[in-house]
Structure formats: C-alpha cells, structure tokens
TrEMBL record:
Gene3D superfamilies: Dihydrofolate Reductase, subunit A (3.40.430.10). Residues 39-217 form the Bacterial bifunctional deaminase-reductase C-terminal domain. This is Dihydrofolate reductase family protein. It comes from Sphaerisporangium flaviroseum.
Length: 224
C-alpha cells in the first residue's frame, strides 16, 4: 500500500506527462456547522431566445406555456419555500391568481396553480405600496440586505422573480442558480433577463430539458 506522500508524487508525475499540473488535494474535513447552512436562491423565468423576459410594452403574449410547461411551473411553486417578488411582477400575479381558480372554465391545472400560489410564502420588495395579501410580507428597506438575511435563515429553497429585484441580487452575488425557460422567439427588445455586471459569473450546466413548442429549459448553478 502506498503512503499518501507517494500517491501525491505519482499523481503529479502522471499529470505532468499528460500536459497539465495536478491540483493540490485538500484532505481537510468540512466543518458541518458551515456546510449547507445557506438557503438556495434561484432566478427562474420564461425568456425569449434573444434574452428578454418581457417584450416592449411589458408584452408577455409570446410566453404562453404548454400544458406540460405550466405543470412544471406549478410543481415548482409547490416546492418553493419562499418566493421573492419585485413590485411590478407581484402586481401582475396578485391581480390574477388569487381568484383565477374560481373563474368559470378554470381548468384543474389552473385551480391547482392558484391554490399553490396563494399558499406559497412570499415576500414583496417595494417602497411604493403599503399592503400585501395572500401569505405575503412586505419589505420596504434595502433588498440586498434582506435577501442576505433570508439566505442565512432556516427554511426551504427560495425563488426570486422580477427583473429589477433579480438584478440587484445578481450584482450582489446572491443567486445560486439560474433557470432559463427559453421560447423560440425573437422579440427585439424589452426587459432583459440578465443585468450588467461588474465581474464575470462562472456557471455549471446541471440540467437541460425540452418542452412542447420548442421551449428549452436550461438550469445553471453558480460556480462558487
């Protein structure tokens, strides 16, 4: 049996012969008090092929989901521990979904989504509204400070939605995962999915999936 020192020596020799340097191997143990203590924060939204989550005029007509994709979004809502919303998207969602399941002609999938959305814990970040409903809390202070605090809290995974809010979290390096649900359409402008950044963010692809209509889901995790 080789000693650890001999194994490191042979590993280095092999690596050099293959044309690259062997990375040092850390033999230290991870402190369990520090591992896995942060809640995952994911930015997931529909997106056009040219990178917009809304066309000019906040037009979302190009992003109507198939039944399969709608169910995927519904299941995601059901699995979300806490949803973070900017004001604009919150007003869009809250003006429709609280009563959508009770409307004439509502499908079982729409009823299920409406119930799940109402029950899902939510936080809305806004300094211009003074009241929120449906299992929702309003935050009027600094969004980055509050999101940082929430990530350190106990609880399930968090989703963030809304271009302005997500951009602030993105620039602060708080987003752990990006889910791009890309429709095969070019809208030519509007609200972009990504914001300008001060430095690169390296990502790993962890999932790819295709839905009816040519919609492609790609999930990336931030490389820390």
């Amino acid at each position: 049996m080789l000693s650890p020192e001999r194994e490191d020596y042979l590993r280095t020799r092999i690596a050099h012969r293959l044309g690259f340097r062997a990375a040092p191997v850390c033999m230290c143990e991870i402190d369990s008090r520090e591992a896995g203590t942060m809640r995952k924060l994911t930015f997931a939204m529909n997106m056009s092929l040219d990178g917009y989550i809304a066309a000019p005029g906040d037009d979302l007509g190009w992003g109507v989901p198939s039944d399969e994709l709608f169910q995927w979004w519904s299941d995601r809502v059901d699995a979300t521990g806490l949803a973070l919303y900017g004001r604009k998207l919150w007003e869009t969602m809250s003006s429709h979904w609280p009563t959508a399941g009770k409307q004439p002609g509502a499908t079982p999938a729409e009823i299920e989504f409406a119930d799940r959305w109402r029950d899902m814990p939510k936080v809305v970040f806004s300094s211009t509204i003074d009241k929120v409903d449906w299992n929702t809390r309003l935050v009027t202070g600094d969004a980055v400070t509050e999101i940082t605090r929430l990530k350190a809290d106990d609880g399930g995974p968090m989703d963030i939605s809304g271009a302005t809010l997500a951009a602030a979290a993105m620039r602060a390096g708080l987003i752990d995962e990006y889910v791009l649900v890309t429709a095969p359409v070019l809208v030519g402008g509007g609200t972009p999915f990504f914001t300008a950044l001060d430095s690169w963010v390296n990502l790993n692809v962890v999932e790819r999936r295709t839905f009816p209509g040519g919609v492609v889901l790609t999930r990336y995790e931030t490389r820390r």
